[in-house]
Design brief:
3% strand, 27 helices, mainly alpha
């Protein structure tokens, strides 16, 4: 009871002292940093965590209730470590239970569905084997989520140290510096920094230093430079001399920049073999296999097109994606970009298509355009099957050919009677093969258009802000020099705007100066005002943090503000220099991957489809001619041709074969784009979406053009050769 009375007295005394200071100074005293409470942290966590992660949490908790399987101590420790990193509300037993219950359910329902629909033991066996193979990856799901979390967090570590060091140069307070960093970082590292403060607020740890040290332990296996930098920051708190304190802070940023470059250097050197393996497994070997498959399938009656679709569009795609994610999981700390629309809610409208009518602005989601285009093209691609199902007669073009079902050399549909089952199969026609190109085009264009429309406007704004960041270091140096001449900040901003006229930085400071002169705003409001502030037009966390340093340091005088800005400018230049060196390290590998995505894969696949179409047409014509010879012959003379005919199976229609290859091209373009962006930029979702939009549209159109041209050319050549040969 006496302790409570003492606390109340102390609190009332502090309030009285604060009120007195406000009266004497005429300004509101800055309160102690607002620490996130339990409720605030949980709301922040729920808002940030992706919906699929919360679904995963519910499934794991449900699985633990239905089928509780406890992992061994070693596995439980690894899973728990990943759970702690990703802030998941599950237990190791729940994760392991889910990894068994989900495959069991998939095997039972999948096998039953496959048997009832396909009447095929192949798909029953596929579901059983696939379910068994899912157990281990699903048990490691927390680890995969943690790796993805680490990749996103490591992209922001350089900026985290930059924000903490920048703040602590003028205010030696670790708690305020961590709060400052959490406000300017993007998730997930922002969530981690808030969690450090939250653990102190909930009295899990007695001090910010203890809470921070326990958090840094989670990075011990992966990012020692991050830990070392924070320890140097902590050591600066105990330095008696100002020069030694500032040296410790400068050293903290130097350590993480130097170590980042060194680790990325080793990563770039070790990346050559995995990328080569990915190229061979994902592109070269599948494409070479596609060249041989038409011949193999023609002599194997039991192989159907959907067997190949499972191998290429499911199994091989999953293997390539898994290999690519393994490569990305080993990427060290870097300096990456974030999606500014996530950090600035007012920019989210630019993810939509904006249409203006007079003074009104309408927002239309890109999903409507992409779905409409995709469905229209998909129906065009299905038209050969729909026309045949409707009972419409086949038609053709080219010279007259009485042996063909349509009476012409090239048929549109060309359905044949199977030599094995006696059922009607197809379509084998050249027209149907060309029309099948619209199906991969529907997927590639629809998905590509969606990503492009969703990211195009936002990335323009970010590129403008990035251009400002490149120039901003020089602008800060000039602003620091003007403040060093004891000029008021309001006049110094105008001087810098005049000197840098015509540049993006000049436009930024010109806007600040106009807000001060015309709207009568103070320096802080001229920059940060939510309606008219300069940052509204230039959304950048780096610039925002620099301006916050300016507004806080200017309270201590123009000379201190000048020194603070000069140091911030130096830090920005150092970060930019290291980032450019990292890009230089990755240049060869990234260029190779881009060439695969943009040209090699669609070009090779397009040529393969043309060759496949020609082979299928030749085998079909020869089979039909030999059948006629057999029917016209009799007795022992027919034995030899009949034996030759038995060698030819029905083969796979080019229509279905092209679907497998075309969809695989779209899939592999998607996967390689994600991996290339991850290697180059880390976890940069905005740039990933923009690159996906560009690459999917470009690669799909190139594949469609090449495969269509080669298909028509080779079939015309094959048709003329066969006609000349058979007539002779």
């Amino acid at each position: 009871m006496p302790k409570e009375i003492d606390k109340q007295k102390l609190k009332s005394l502090m309030e009285l002292y604060k009120t007195q200071l406000e009266k004497e100074l005429g300004a509101k005293v800055e309160e102690y940093p607002s620490k996130p409470t339990t409720k605030e942290y949980r709301e922040f966590k729920e808002e940030f965590l992706p919906r699929q992660m919360t679904i995963y949490e519910k499934l794991c908790n449900l699985s633990e209730k239905l089928l509780k399987i406890k992992p061994d101590a070693k596995q439980a420790q690894v899973i728990q470590e990943s759970i702690d990193i990703t802030h998941l509300n599950i237990t190791p037993a729940g994760a392991v239970s889910f990894s068994f219950l989900m495959p069991i359910a998939a095997a039972l329902f999948g096998s039953l569905f496959a048997f009832l629909v396909f009447q095929s033991n192949f798909f029953v066996l596929l579901f059983v084997i696939g379910a068994a193979c899912m157990i281990k990856p699903l048990a490691r799901t927390p680890e995969f989520i943690a790796n993805n979390w680490r990749l996103k967090s490591s992209n922001q570590m350089v900026l985290c140290i930059f924000y903490v060091v920048t703040y602590m140069r003028h205010t030696s307070n670790l708690e305020k510096a961590i709060e400052f960093a959490s406000q300017h970082l993007a998730p997930p590292l922002a969530l981690d920094m808030k969690k450090v403060l939250w653990d102190v607020e909930t009295e899990k740890y007695s001090s910010v230093k203890e809470s921070l040290d326990m958090y840094l332990e989670t990075w011990k296996k992966w990012n020692l430079e991050f830990i070392e930098s924070f320890h140097l920051i902590e050591s600066s708190l105990y330095e008696g001399e100002e020069s030694r304190r500032l040296n410790a802070l400068d050293k903290a940023l130097d350590v993480i920049l130097d170590e980042t470059y060194e680790k990325m250097l080793h990563y770039a050197h070790n990346l050559q073999n995995p990328i080569t393996m990915l190229h061979m497994l994902g592109i070269i070997l599948p494409i070479l296999g596609l060249v041989i498959l038409p011949l193999v399938v023609s002599f194997m009656e039991n192989v159907r097109w959907y067997h190949l679709a499972v191998i290429y569009n499911v199994i091989l795609t999953v293997v390539v994606y898994y290999l690519g994610k393994s490569i990305l999981s080993k990427r060290p700390t870097g300096y990456g970009n974030t999606d500014i629309a996530e950090e600035n809610p007012e920019l989210k409208k630019y993810r939509n298509v904006l249409i203006k009518f007079g003074n009104k602005e309408f927002q239309i989601s890109p999903i409507f355009f992409s779905v409409f285009l995709g469905v229209a093209l998909f129906l065009l691609g299905l038209s050969p099957i729909l026309l045949h199902a409707a009972g419409l007669p086949d038609f053709g073009f080219g010279d007259e050919d009485l042996a063909a079902s349509c009476g012409h050399r090239y048929c549109f549909l060309e359905y044949r009677t199977s030599s094995a089952t006696g059922q009607e199969i197809g379509p084998y026609g050249l027209g149907a093969s060309v029309m099948s190109l619209f199906i991969p085009l529907s997927f590639g264009l629809a998905i590509g258009l969606y990503y492009r429309l969703k990211s195009k406007n936002v990335i323009k704004i970010r590129d403008r802000a990035k251009q400002l960041e490149l120039e901003f270091a020089n602008a800060l140096f000039q602003l620091g020099n003007r403040l060093g001449d004891n000029l008021p900040v309001e006049i110094a901003v105008g001087k810098v705007a005049d000197v840098m006229e015509g540049t993006v930085s000049g436009s930024f400071f010109q806007l600040v100066s106009m807000n001060i002169r015309r709207l009568g705003m103070g320096i802080e409001k001229a920059i940060f005002d939510p309606l008219h502030g300069a940052l509204v037009s230039f959304p950048s966390n780096l610039i925002e943090s620099s301006m916050k340093v300016l507004t806080q340091a200017i309270k201590k005088g123009p000379l201190i503000a000048a020194q603070a800005l000069t140091n911030v400018a130096r830090y920005i230049k150092e970060i930019h220099k290291v980032n450019e060196r990292l890009k230089d390290l990755m240049a060869d590998i990234i260029a190779s991957m881009h060439s695969q995505i943009k040209f090699l894969t669609p070009a090779i696949a397009g040529v393969v489809i043309g060759i496949t179409s020609m082979i299928t047409a030749i085998l079909g014509k020869l089979s039909g001619q030999l059948q006629q010879v057999t029917e016209s012959a009799g007795g022992a003379e027919a034995a030899a041709p009949t034996g030759i005919i038995s060698l030819f199976g029905d083969g796979i229609p080019t229509y279905y074969f092209q679907l497998i290859v075309g969809i695989y091209v779209v899939q592999i373009t998607f996967i390689l784009t994600v991996i290339a962006n991850g290697v180059e930029n880390g976890s940069d979702k905005l740039n990933e979406r923009y690159q996906l939009g560009n690459n999917l549209i470009r690669s799909t159109l190139l594949y469609i053009f090449i495969s269509g041209a080669v298909m028509l050319l080779f079939n015309i050549i094959a048709g003329r050769i066969l006609t000349a040969t058979l007539s002779s």
